[in-house]
Amino acid sequence: MKIAVLAGDGIGPEVTREAVGVIERLAIPGLEMTDALVGGVAYKATGHPLPPETLEIARASDGILFGAVGDPDCDSLERHLRPEQAILGLRKALTLFANLRPAKVFAGLEGHSALRPEVAGAIDLVIVRELNGDVYFGEKGFRTAANGDREGYDVMSYSDSEVRRIAHVAFRTAMGRARRLCSVDKANVLETSQLWRDVVIEVAQEYPEVALEHMYVDNAAMQLVRAPGKFDVVLTGNLFGDILSDQASMCVGSIGLLASASLGERETAHGTFGLYEPIHGSAPDIAGKGLANPMATILSAAMLLRHSLGLAAEADRIEAAVAKTLADGILGGDLGGSAGTTEIGDAVLARL
Ligand SMILES: NC(=O)C1=CN([C@@H]2O[C@H](COP(=O)(O)OP(=O)(O)OC[C@H]3O[C@@H](n4cnc5c(N)ncnc54)[C@H](O)[C@@H]3O)[C@@H](O)[C@H]2O)C=CC1
Ligand SMILES: CC(C)CC(=O)C(=O)O
Ligand SMILES: [Mg+2]
Predict the structure, then answer these.
(1) Which GO terms label this protein's molecular function in UniProt (predicted)?
(2) How far, in Å, is the centroid of ligand 1 from the Cα of 217?
């Protein structure tokens, strides 16, 4: 069993260290972890944010534990050399098209949500975000308009096979939960979304037990704070899913709590190959200060064990230890507490 550990930039290494410590404490027989460079740190060392050796180590693993990429020093590089291209490149090169982002309020943290406790307490949803298409991967560039203005453009598109495969993931996810699926789009304005909606309706025929509704993304953003408890599975595209999941994190309490799994269709001897990362970025504003909340990365490690290594009992142990740590009031600054990154990691270890 192999895990590739890609810590990346900013708080990436700080939060990844705690998650690796938790995995090590489980002493899983035959498990190997291999570090590789990614993001700005890889660019500075090798001239590329996703060096070929890193991609090879990632491909050869059963699952990838990813920290975060992004470095203000690299913000003026040509786009293909920027750290963020590493995570986009991994998702695309490894055909990891299904991004699962669960959001659930932890017992005892209802009062730490940006929402009223009674509203927050009902949150138990999963965002199923398409990860290989949309405006993130369309043709992009700069051009000169007829009046001489400089213009930037990014093409948004989805093909029906791209929508179909992510819709199946979302319907299957809903079948394992409360069987309610809300597909979020902007079909009142965008043709990309009209096709999305048409295909989701077609796929729904195969899942008659799932109650399907469609919602425009602007309304979905509003409903996510008005009545988040009404959502079970939210299916959406790359851009809308990116935005709605950061919003969902504050409904739960902090972006430092939300984990994610990015999956494709490749099965290994142990489970489904995937990449696991917190939903947050490299947080340059707090990097190097020991202030980052490592829970999202620790919970991502639990998802890796469950989905890619077939170790559900070990994943449960990690999730229970995280829940106990939070219930015991060991909270970082993001949740109004004073615990630092290593203190939180150590507290999880003590409760494993
Ligand atoms: N998957 C990835 O690697 C991602 C990378 N990025 C990159 O990260 C860099 C920073 O982007 P931002 O928009 O600032 O988003 P961000 O998620 O890094 O930070 C947003 C805010 O949340 C706070 N925050 C994030 N994670 C936290 C944690 N674990 N504990 C406590 N507070 C936390 C930060 O301090 C900051 O105030 C950029 O270069 C961006 O492109 C952004 C999102 C995802
Ligand atoms: C850095 C972006 C490419 C990714 C992002 O914000 C995300 O996946 O949440
Ligand atoms: Mg994001």
Answers:
(1) 3-isopropylmalate dehydrogenase activity; magnesium ion binding; NAD binding
(2) 22
Q: What is the pLDDT of residues 139-176, one digit of tens each?
A: 999 999 999 999 999 999 999 999 999 999 999 999 99
For 9-71, the DSSP string reads: STTHHHHHHHHHHHHHHT--TT-EEEE---THHHHHHHS-SS-HHHHHHHHTSSEEEEEE---
Same domain, 232 and 317: no
pLDDT digits (tens, 9 = 90+) for 91-135: 999 999 999 999 999 999 999 999 999 999 999 999 999 999 999
Of 212, 237, 252, the last residue of a domain is 252
Domain limit, last residue, from 225, 252, 279? 252
Q: Which of 6, 50, 84 to mutate to test the pocket of ligand 2 (most atoms within 8 A of CB)?
A: 84
pLDDT by residue (tens digit) across 252-265? 999 999 999 999 99
Residue nearest to atom 31 of ligand 1 (CA): 292
Where in the sequence is the domain holding 346, given as residue range(s)? 1-96+259-352
How far away, in angstroms, is 113 Cα from ligand 3 center? 19
**246 catalytic per annotation:** yes
pTM here? 0.98
Residue nearest to atom 7 of ligand 2 (CA): 242
237 in a structural domain: yes
The number of folded domains in the chain is 2
Candidate list 35, 124, 160, 246, residue with the active-site label: 246
Burial class (CB in 10 A: 0-12, 13-18, 19+), 59: middle
Tell me how far the alpha carbon of residue 242 lies from the centroid of ligand 2, in angstroms: 7
- In 3D space, the residue among 214, 254, 253, 209 whose CA is nearest the CA of residue 236 turns out to be 214
* CATH number of the domain enclosing 349: 3.40.718.10
